[in-house]
Design brief:
single chain; mainly beta; 2 domains; 12-stranded antiparallel barrel; 2 helices
Length: 350
C-alpha cells in the first residue's frame, strides 16, 4: 500500500514538472531569421530596424529586422506600424508570411518590415520615451595627504547634473578644491556653472553659459565668465564627438585687496570639446579661450583633459587627468599658470 502511494506521488510530481517545462517552452517569443535560425526568448522591443530578444542562454540579442523571416509572441503588446497606426494584440504569422496582430479589435496584418516599434502594456512607446528628457548625475572626489617631513592635506569635490533632451542639453556643475601644506593654505577655490545648448539644425546649435566662483589664494573675491554664441559638431558619431563653439563673452574679476583693479571686459568666447571612446576607456579634452576686445593681451585660457576608466558597470569610474588655468594678466603676486593633476573616483547615477 505504501509503495503504491509513493508511486502515485512520484508520477504526480513528474507530471507537474513536465507541465511547468512545457508551459515555459510555450510561453516564449520566437524569432526566425532568413538564415534558418530559430531564436526563443522574450522580445523586449522592436525599435526602428532592430529587434532586441532577451534570452537565458546568451543575454540580449540584437537582430536586424531586415533579416527576420517570422516572429510570434505569447503575450499581447502594443504595435506601432510605419503608417502610424497603433494596435494591441498577440503577434503570430499567417501562411503567406505576414505578421498577424490579434487583439480585442479587428485583426491587423502587416509585413515584418512594416513594424516600427513594439512595447509592453504599461510601458511607453520607444519613440515617445526617446524624446523625453533624461537626467544623469555624477559626484566625484579625491583626498590626498602626507605626514613626516612635511604635513600636507588636500581635498577636491565636484558634482554635475545633466539633462539631455531630444535636441538640447542643460547642465549645472560645481567644484571645490582646498589644500594646506605645513599649515599654509596653498589652494582654496570654488566654482559653480550652468551651460545650455540647443541643437536647432543638423550639426548647428546655439549655447549660453555662465561660470562664477572665487579663489582665495589668488585673492579673487568673485570671478565670472558668461558667454553665448553658436556651436558646430564637426564629428558626431558613436564613440567620438568633436564640437566647437564661437561667441561673445563678458568677464568680471574683483579682488579682496586694493592693489588689483577690478576686471570688466567684453570679448570672444571660443571653445573646443572632444570625446573619444576606446574599448574600455574614454578620453575627454576641453579647451576654452576668452580674450578681451579692448586688449587682446588680456585673456584666460582654460583646459581639462582626462582618461575615464570604468570600475563597475555604469556606476563607479576612475578619472585621471589634469586642468590648467592661464591668466595672461593675473593679480599682483600671482603666477599666470595654475596646473592641477588629479586622480578622482566618480559615482554616476540616473
Amino acid at each position: 500500500m505504501l509503495g503504491i502511494m509513493i508511486s502515485r506521488i512520484a508520477r504526480a510530481l513528474a507530471a507537474l514538472a513536465l507541465s511547468f517545462f512545457f508551459a515555459g517552452a510555450v510561453m516564449a517569443d520566437v524569432v526566425e531569421t532568413r538564415g534558418g535560425a530559430r531564436l526563443v526568448g522574450n522580445i523586449k522591443k522592436i525599435d526602428g530596424s532592430r529587434i532586441v530578444l532577451g534570452t537565458d542562454y546568451a543575454g540580449d540579442l540584437t537582430i536586424k529586422q531586415s533579416e527576420v523571416a517570422s516572429l510570434q509572441t505569447d503575450q499581447a503588446r502594443f504595435v506601432r506600424l510605419v503608417d502610424g497606426r497603433v494596435v494591441n494584440g498577440v503577434l503570430s504569422m499567417t501562411e503567406d508570411g505576414r505578421v498577424l496582430v490579434s487583439g480585442e479589435g479587428e485583426p491587423v496584418t502587416a509585413k515584418v518590415g512594416q513594424i516600427a516599434a513594439t512595447w509592453a502594456p504599461g510601458a511607453k512607446d520607444p519613440a515617445v520615451a526617446a524624446r523625453e528628457p533624461k537626467w544623469r548625475y555624477e559626484a566625484a572626489g579625491d583626498i590626498t595627504g602626507k605626514t613626516g617631513n612635511r604635513e600636507q592635506f588636500g581635498t577636491a569635490l565636484s558634482a554635475r547634473a545633466k539633462r539631455t533632451g531630444s535636441h538640447d542639453v542643460f547642465q549645472i556643475y560645481s567644484a571645490f578644491r582646498r589644500q594646506t601644506s605645513n599649515g599654509t593654505t596653498s589652494a582654496d577655490q570654488f566654482k559653480i556653472g550652468v551651460d545650455y545648448s540647443d541643437n536647432f539644425s543638423g550639426r548647428r546649435s546655439w549655447y549660453a553659459r555662465d561660470e562664477s566662483g572665487y579663489d582665495r589664494v589668488k585673492r579673487i573675491a568673485l570671478s565670472s565668465v558668461a558667454g553665448s554664441g553658436f556651436g558646430y559638431d564637426f564629428i558626431k558619431e558613436k564613440g567620438q564627438h568633436l564640437a566647437g563653439r564661437a561667441g561673445l563673452s563678458y568677464r568680471y574679476e574683483s579682488y579682496d585687496n586694493k592693489r588689483n583693479d577690478t576686471v570688466q571686459s567684453f570679448g570672444l568666447d571660443l571653445g573646443v570639446h572632444h570625446t573619444y571612446d576606446f574599448r574600455d576607456t574614454r578620453l575627454v579634452n576641453e579647451v576654452t579661450f576668452v580674450p578681451a576686445f579692448d586688449d587682446f593681451s588680456s585673456y584666460r585660457f582654460m583646459h581639462e583633459s582626462y582618461f575615464e576608466i570604468p570600475l563597475s558597470k555604469r556606476v563607479w569610474k576612475l578619472r585621471l587627468g589634469l586642468t590648467t588655468d592661464y591668466n595672461s594678466l593675473p593679480g599682483d603676486g600671482v603666477k599666470k599658470l595654475d596646473t592641477v593633476y588629479f586622480t578622482r573616483f566618480v559615482f554616476n547615477w540616473e
